[in-house]
Structures are given as C-alpha cells and as structure tokens.
C-alpha cells in the first residue's frame, strides 16, 4: 500500500497503485502516481505481485457476465453468452467443453489476451478493462504464465533464449537471467539442449521449453490451453505432474482448458462449458465420491 | 524426466526476493534480437532486401545515366564549339546555330525524361519495399502475439521491427546503389569509351548516392512502421490465431 495525496482535495489515500481516480472527488491521480513511481517509490507501481496485502483475496480471478461476440463479415457469432466464474486462489481448475464451446475464448479473457464485448473480468479484484497497456503487459509478464497447445515458441530463438525472453521484459540482469533460464531448462530435462532451436526439438521437448518459459518469472497463475493435446503420453503425464505439484506446493493457481482425462483427474474443480455458457461445475469431492461408488 | 523437486526447492528459496515492478526491453537486447532475426531468416531477409535493392538500383542507374549524359553532352558541345574554329571545315553560322539549338532541345527533353524515370523508380521502389515489409510482418503475427503474451509492450514490437527494417533498408540501399551505379557505368563505358569516366561530375554522383541511401532507408521505415504498429496493437489472442 502506498499513501498518495490527491492533487485536488488533498486527501491522503491508500492505494495499491491500481486505483487511479480519487474515491472522494474523482480527480485523476495518475500524474502523482507516475511521479512517485519515477522517483523510486515502488509502491506506486501496480502491486499485482506476491504481495501481502493482495493475498487476502479469496478469488484470484472472477468473471461477471462475460460476453464475447465475434464478427464474421455481417454475421455476429457469439462465443461467450455471459459467463460468471469465480476462480479460487491456489486451485487447479479445468475447463472442459467440446470444440467451439467457447472455452478458448474464456481462456483468452481470463488471461488478458482479449477484451470481452461486455461483462467484466477481475484479476485479484482489479477490473482488467481498467488496466493500461503497461499494467496489462506487467500482468502478462510477471503474473501469468501461458502454455499453449501449439507451444508457440519463437522459431528463431534457441530454447534458452525463448525461456529468458520474459525475464528480459521483467528487467532481470543478464547473468541472473541466463542462470535461471538454464536452471529451468535443466529442471524440465533439457539441460543438454539449451542452444537448440525449436525445430530441432521434438513436440514433447518443445512443450517442456514452453513450460520452462511459463515458469520464468514465477507466475501466480498458470494458464494452460490444452497443454497435453499434442504430446505423447509420457511427456503429457510429466507436465500434468509438474503442474499439479506446483499447484499443491507453491500455491500456483492452474487454469487449464483440456480434454485430457489425466488432467481432469488432478483438478480441484471442472467447469463444463457448452454453447458459450457454464453448463455445470464439478467439485473434485463429488467426483471422488462417484468414483468411490463405482468402485464398490 | 522433469525434476519438480528441484524447481520447488528453488522457488521456495526465491520467495523472499523482491519483485521488480518494471517492463523493459533494453536497446542492446532489442538490437541483439532484431539482428538475430535478420541473420537467421536470411532467405526471408534477402527477399525483403531485394525489394529495396531493385528499387534503389533502378533509381541509381537513372541518376548515373544523368551524370554520364551530362558529361557526354559537354563533350559534344565542346566538340561543336571547338570543331568550328580549329578545323578547316566549312560551316556557316546558320548550321552552327541549328546544331546548338538541337543540342539544347535534346538536353531539356532528356532532363524531363529523366525526372519522369526518377519518379517511376521511386514508385517501384516504394511499392516493392512496402509489399515485402507487409509480408514479413504478416507472417510473424503469431510470434508477435506470443511476445505480447510474455509481457512485451506494443512499443517493444515496433522497436524490434524498426531496427530490423532500418538494418535491411540500409544494407539493401547500399547494395542497390552500388549495383545500379556500377551496371550503368559499365554500360556507359561500353557506349562512350573509358574516356567518359574522368569527365563525369563525381561530386554530383556522390550526392546522388547519398540521396539513394537516404531514400532507401526512409522508404523502408515508412513502409514497415504501419504494419508493425497494426500488428503490435492487435490483442494477443487475435495475433495468435492468425493463420498465414
């Protein structure tokens, strides 16, 4: 929390850096906050990081009436028709649904990769639509790690360069960055392939690089869009295990869109999406019960 | 194969570390990435640069021709002027006057044609460069989307493309200028003999070369910035889902 004096009514306001308008008189406080930030008061910057004051929120991501309409020529195609979803801090959430159900769209909204047509998406109780370009980039860089079905590695960069890219953006020093990059690649079992280009690696190896890259800045949320979709069983299993343990032991929130039953197996909750709406949400406890009854 | 224990242990020890609140792309890093992009996509870069090379070579050949014509015309008029006095050939005043006027007319006509050619070559150059820049940005939408997911701000993307384009534009302009100049010079030497070379206005030639380099860079940048800005402003999801 930083104390900022409102330029108009002179009231001292405590803010995390994300509220830019004085709650009393409605004056724009951006200028004051920028000044504070420039002169080294880090508190005036957005505090989306691992911060004591923020960890109190129960829900890390919340969506309210999220709608997304794509325009294809003259035709309007609704991809999401009002999704209300609360994602708890530190939970392992799987989003399931047939292709075209809108789960990728929902995934993009939650990850700040796309803007909803209407409705709001909150991350740590902050409306994402209120974030400026810098805060959004900061969020994507430090707060969220993305894993894609198609890996999305930068083709001209080596494995190490791919992993260090988010650390460059985060302003990490060169030596520290290379060290952490090599460490992460070693952790995912690619310690001997640091300088290989993506096309020199197998699909499973590419996804490991992508996982290492997602972990680069130790994000609080990992968004995984069908991470095991293009992988062999063994690698898929290892990546699921990695995600599960990250989730269980360092309280990283995992949100994944998936068809993979092994992935469903470790999830705390499963959200079923159909035709752009939440069809139902299964709690893990219920599934265990079902499995239990089946076993008897 | 994935060593989760080590990762978790490292994460725990990192926990007390202060988190920096900044998003940056330092210029040296931007340069490194951009130059690597050029050197690693050499084939693609060569195609992009070819647009610049051809345009600038055309422009340069037109200018070289202008300088050469200037030199040969001087020679002709000198020949006409001195030819009368020095040799014993009988030429009356009327003939001399007629020769002088045709020379002048040819001169202005040539200048008009040349400026037309310069305008044409600039157009060819501009369209060629714009086209190749547009292509090279479009085919990298996915990559741009990925970079934005990793925390790149719009300016970073534009910065990377600017460096890349400036490098390609400059190199292409140098090669193009040399190519156009040398080819036209050889053609002139074949037509008028080696004697034309010392008669050329080399100061003017250098000015033209400088202009050609400048124009190559400027057109490349102007052509590359709009698609780069457009790509940078796309929401990452849209950039990621583009099929090329």
Overview of the structural elements:
The complex is a heterodimer of chains A (296) and B (244). Chain A has helices spanning 30-38, 103-110, 133-143, 159-169, 174-187, 203-214, 233-250, 261-266, 284-295, and strands spanning 2-5, 12-15, 59-72, 75-88, 92-96, 118-123, 126-127, 144-147, 221-225, 253-257, 269-274, 277-283. Chain A is of the alpha/beta class. Chain A has two domains: 2-44, no CATH class; 90-102 and 131-291, P-loop containing nucleotide triphosphate hydrolases (Rossmann fold). In chain A, the strands form three sheets. Chain A has a six-stranded mixed sheet, with helices on both faces. Chain A has a four-stranded antiparallel sheet with strand order 4-3-6-7, covered by helices on one side. In chain A, a hairpin with a 2-residue loop joins strand 3 (59-72) and strand 4 (75-88). Chain A is globular and about 60 Å long. Residues 37-55 of chain A have low confidence and may be disordered. With 244 residues, chain B is mainly alpha-helical. Chain B has a domain at 29-65 and 111-234. In chain B, 84% of the residues lie in helices and 0% in strands. Chain B is built from nine helices and no strands. Chain B has helices spanning 4-14, 27-40, 42-86, 93-138, 141-149, 154-192, 196-199, 202-233, 236-240. The longest helix of chain B is centred in the middle third of the chain and has 46 residues, at 93-138. The radius of gyration of chain B is 28 Å and the shape is elongated. The two termini of chain B are 35 Å apart. The chains are: A alpha/beta (296), B mainly alpha (244). The interface between A and B is large, with 53 and 44 residues.
């Amino acid at each position: 929390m930083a104390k900022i004096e409102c330029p108009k009514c002179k009231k001292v306001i405590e803010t995390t850096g994300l509220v830019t308008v004085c709650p009393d008189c409605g004056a724009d406080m951006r200028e004051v906050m920028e000044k504070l930030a420039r002169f080294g008061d880090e508190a005036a910057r957005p505090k989306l990081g691992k911060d004591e004051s923020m960890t109190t929120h129960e829900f890390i991501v919340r969506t309210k009436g999220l709608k997304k309409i794509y325009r294809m020529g003259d035709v309007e195609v609704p991809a999401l028709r009002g999704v209300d979803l609360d994602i708890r801090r530190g939970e392992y959430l799987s989003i399931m649904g047939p292709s075209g159900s809108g789960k990728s769209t929902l995934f993009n909204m939650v990850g700040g990769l796309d803007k909803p047509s209407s409705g709001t998406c909150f991350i740590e109780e902050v409306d994402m639509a209120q974030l400026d370009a810098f805060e959004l980039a900061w969020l994507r860089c430090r707060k969220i790690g993305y894993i894609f079905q198609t890996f999305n590695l930068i083709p001209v960069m080596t494995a190490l360069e791919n992993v260090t890219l988010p650390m460059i953006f985060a302003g990490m020093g060169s030596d520290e960055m290379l060290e952490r990059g090599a460490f992460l690649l070693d952790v995912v079992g690619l310690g001997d392939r640091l300088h290989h280009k993506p096309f020199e690696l197998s699909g499973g190896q590419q996804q490991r690089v992508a996982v290492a890259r997602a972990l680069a800045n130790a994000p609080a949320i990992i968004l995984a869009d069908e991470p095991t979709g293009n992988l062999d069983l063994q690698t898929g299993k290892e990546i699921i295990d990695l995600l599960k343990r990250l989730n269980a032991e360092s309280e990283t929130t995992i949100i994944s869109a998936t068809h993979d039953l092994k992935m469903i197996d470790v999830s705390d909750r499963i959200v079923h999406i159909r035709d752009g709406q939440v069809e139902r949400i299964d709690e893990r406890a219920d599934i265990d019960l079902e499995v239990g009854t089946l076993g008897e | 194969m994935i060593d989760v224990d080590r990762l978790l242990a490292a994460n725990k020890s990192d926990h007390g570390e202060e988190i920096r609140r900044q998003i940056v792309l330092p210029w040296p890093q931007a340069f490194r990435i951009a130059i690597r992009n050029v050197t690693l996509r050499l084939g693609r870069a060569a195609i992009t640069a070819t647009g610049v090379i051809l345009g600038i070579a055309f422009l340069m050949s037109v200018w070289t021709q202008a300088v050469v014509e200037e030199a040969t015309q001087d020679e002709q008029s000198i020949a006409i002027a001195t030819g009368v006095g020095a040799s014993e050939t009988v030429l009356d005043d009327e003939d001399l006057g007629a020769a002088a006027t045709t020379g002048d007319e040819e001169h202005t006509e040539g200048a008009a044609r040349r400026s037309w050619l310069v305008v044409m070559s600039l157009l060819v150059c501009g369209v060629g460069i714009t086209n190749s820049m547009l292509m090279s940005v479009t085919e990298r939408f996915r990559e741009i989307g990925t970079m934005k997911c990793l925390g790149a701000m719009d300016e970073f993307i534009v910065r990377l493309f600017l460096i890349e384009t400036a490098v390609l534009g400059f190199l292409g302009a140098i090669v193009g200028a040399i190519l156009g100049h040398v080819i036209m010079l050889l053609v002139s030497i074949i037509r008028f003999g080696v004697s034309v070379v010392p008669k050329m206005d080399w100061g003017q030639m250098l000015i033209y070369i400088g202009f050609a380099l400048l124009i190559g860079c400027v057109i490349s940048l102007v052509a590359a910035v709009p698609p780069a800005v457009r790509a940078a402003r796309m929401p990452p999801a849209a950039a990621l889902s583009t099929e090329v």
